[in-house]
Amino acid sequence: MIPKDILEKILRIDITTNRLVTDVFAGAYHSIFKGRGMEFDEVREYQPGDDVRAIDWNVTARTGFPHIKKYVEERELTVMILVDASASMQFASTNQMKNKLAAEIAAVLAFAAIRNNDKVGLLMFTDEPELFIPPKKGKIHVLRVIREILYFKPKGKATNLPKVLEFLTKVLRRRSTVFIISDFLAPNADYVSIRKSIRIANQHHDLIAITLTDPREINLPDCALVELVDAESGAKMIVDTSNERLRRDYHKNAMGMIKDRSRLFDTIGIDHIDISTDVPYTKALVSFFAQRRHRLAR
Fold first, then answer.
1. Distance CA 26, CA 34 (A)
2. Are 161 and 186 in contact (CB under 8 A)?
3. Homologous superfamily (CATH) for 4-33+75-208+276-297
4. Sequence ranges of the domains in the chain
5. What is the distance between the alpha carbons of residues 67 and 91, in angstroms, rounded to a whole number?
6. How do residues 103-154 score in pLDDT, each as one tens digit?
């Protein structure tokens, strides 16, 4: 039996995201994702005005008449949503916890997908793939996906993205659009293995990273002695936040990590969206959709 508070959250997200999808994302989603994959339909004789790049030279040589390959837009897309359920996602210094924000963003993407008759799947992960829901169509399925995100109780605390992406490539054979919603924080992150795993996964799928950041992960408040705890490793440290140099170094280190992460994504060639928990996420998503549509139109 699903608790009443979870049912209320599902209803609220359903209402909110449906409005967003209808008013903002539906058309944009179709224009930047649909049609990126094409499937072969038939070979027919060349007609004036056809694109010469589509000529099938083998058939042309065999028949003595120019023929072209005809393709049609793939009739459906598979959207896979990967949600980080590690301990660092259970944090908030504002009124929005990262894991709850992840659920709402996942809902927007899922509803946009089913509006376009696409399949949606879910993978919840920590340092292991913990919950996999195979892609399916329909609103009932999407509501189940949202319920699982909200109701999910992870076993692990840490993050192991390489292992998760390796699992994904094994279970998801068809090329798909894959959204990874995470804070991309991991103790002693091995960027060599992360870079390798993302590159391999991106060869099979269209990866899009959605990074969630809390303001306190960038700036420390000036409030004297504070105990900082790493949610994933459990390491503790007492710091004097009244020390201006310490706050400055903390900010510099945080910004350095963000730049390294962006450089990693850019080097591999995957799109990424940076979202702060204290700013409406719709602005970042709309900006991403607009930029991607513009780039694909060139």
1. 11
2. yes
3. von Willebrand factor, type A domain (3.40.50.410)
4. 4-33+75-208+276-297, 39-73
5. 60
6. 889 988 888 888 778 899 999 999 999 999 999 998 889 888 888 888 889 9
